[in-house]
Structures are given as structure tokens and as C-alpha cells.
Write a structure and sequence with these properties.
This protein is an alpha+beta fold. It contains four helices and twelve strands, in the order E-H-E-E-E-E-H-E-E-E-E-E-E-H-H-E. It starts with a strand and ends in a 22-residue tail after the last strand.
Length: 224
């Protein structure tokens, strides 16, 4: 799953990695600077409206009126396109979370050890997401969820689920309203970065407190 991630680079860096031109969206060289993004907060979400790209602050979590539990923060990629909860979002609310990495907690002993997972070459990451559109409107707790996939190989030792990270060249098609739900399923299956593209290391347990921020959250530390 993905219950915490980092979004600290600048908009410029994310957009340049996607090949987005300056006249397509508002650039900003100032780092976003969020090293410990938690559910229940607003997150910058890339989406397409009326054939134009937008980056909007959107609530991370999804809980429609009939849902009487805590808002969900993830959706399984294997079932999101067909399930009651997420099918409408898959069809009309596909989006992207630009990120730099995510955190997972490894079970073992009395304590869980947090790890930071990121691209081996420190490239920006693009998490597939779905949510309640349009994203320039406040829908309360009907925000967005991150689409997840099964972990394989070494990464499964950290956690059995991970964010579905799309290749940069697949992002625009994923976002397009002209892309059918069926085609989006193929994109999710065919254009996800494999586990071999990622590295990970243990980090401070302080990341467990959502009030803790800064570069220390992603710095490698000795396992506790």
C-alpha cells in the first residue's frame, strides 16, 4: 500500500520529466518541500480538464456519503476499474500524483522499520491516481486515492503492495478523457515501472509522526 510519500521537488522538475511545455501549465521553480505527506491532507494532483493540464490541491482520501468508515487512501489496480466504489472514478477521474518516493514499514520484531523507496536514478515518480472530478472543486472527503499494484522480487520484503508508478510517456494518455477505461487498464498493466527501477533504505522512525518534515525524513539511517 502507500500511506505516506514525499513530494518535495519543484513543479518545474516534475513537468520537465514529463516533457510538458511551459505554455501548457504554470511552471514554478520553488520546491514543494513536503517530505512526509500524509492522508487527510491536500496534495498537488495533476489532472486534465477541457484538454488542458492542471495541478490542483486535492484531499487525499475518498469516502462518499454512503461510506461510514474512514476515507480510503488506496485502490487496488486489479479491481478498481470494475468495483462499485471506484469504477466511476476510474472512468472519469484519472489523475497523477507527482512524487519523489514513498514510505513503507517493514514488519519485524516489536517495532516496524520505515523505509524510503525511490527511483534508482532519483527520477521523479508519477503515481496513478483516481478521484472525484473535477479537481478544481472541493468535494470534501471525496478526494482521491492512489492506485496500487502487487510488489515482486526484493520489494515484497518491505511490503506486498506498492503505488502503481507510470512511465513518463504514459502519463498523458492515462490522463486523457479520450482514453477508454479499458485502455487505461492496459496502461496500468503495461506502463508501470518494474521493481528493478527502484532503490530503498531505512529511515528514521520520526517519519511516523505526520508533524515531522524536512530532509531528515528521507535520509538513510541505521535500522532501529
Amino acid at each position: 500500500m502507500c500511506g505516506r510519500f514525499a513530494q518535495y521537488s519543484s513543479r518545474d522538475e516534475y513537468f520537465e520529466a514529463l516533457g510538458v511545455k511551459p505554455d501548457e501549465i504554470i511552471y514554478d521553480p520553488e520546491p514543494i518541500g513536503r517530505f512526509n505527506v500524509a492522508p487527510g491532507t491536500k496534495v498537488l494532483l495533476l489532472n486534465e480538464r477541457e484538454d488542458e493540464l492542471h495541478l490542483d490541491p486535492v484531499y487525499w482520501g475518498y469516502g462518499p456519503e454512503w461510506w461510514n468508515k474512514q476515507p480510503l487512501i488506496n485502490a487496488r489496480g486489479e479491481t478498481a476499474a470494475s468495483g462499485r466504489m471506484f469504477k466511476p472514478l476510474w472512468e472519469h477521474g484519472r489523475a497523477i500524483v507527482p512524487a519523489d518516493g514513498w514510505f513503507e514499514w517493514k514488519k519485524g520484531g516489536e517495532k516496524k522499520q520505515p523505509y524510503f523507496i525511490y527511483h534508482k536514478k532519483k527520477h521523479p515518480l508519477f503515481f496513478a491516481a483516481i478521484g472525484k472530478s473535477p479537481y478544481d472543486k472541493d468535494h470534501g472527503h471525496e478526494g482521491f486515492v492512489i492506485v496500487t499494484a502487487e510488489s515482486n522480487k526484493g520489494m515484497v520484503d518491505i511490503h506486498d503492495r506498492r503505488p502503481l508508478v507510470l512511465t513518463p510517456d504514459a502519463v498523458r494518455e492515462w490522463l486523457s478523457s479520450e482514453t477508454s477505461p479499458e485502455r487505461a487498464q492496459k496502461i496500468a498493466h503495461e506502463a508501470a515501472l518494474p521493481e528493478k527501477d527502484f532503490s530503498w533504505h531505512p529511515v528514521t522512525s520520526k517519519v511516523g509522526n505526520i508533524h515531522n518534515q524536512g530532509k531528515d525524513m528521507i535520509k538513510e539511517s541505521d535500522p532501529s
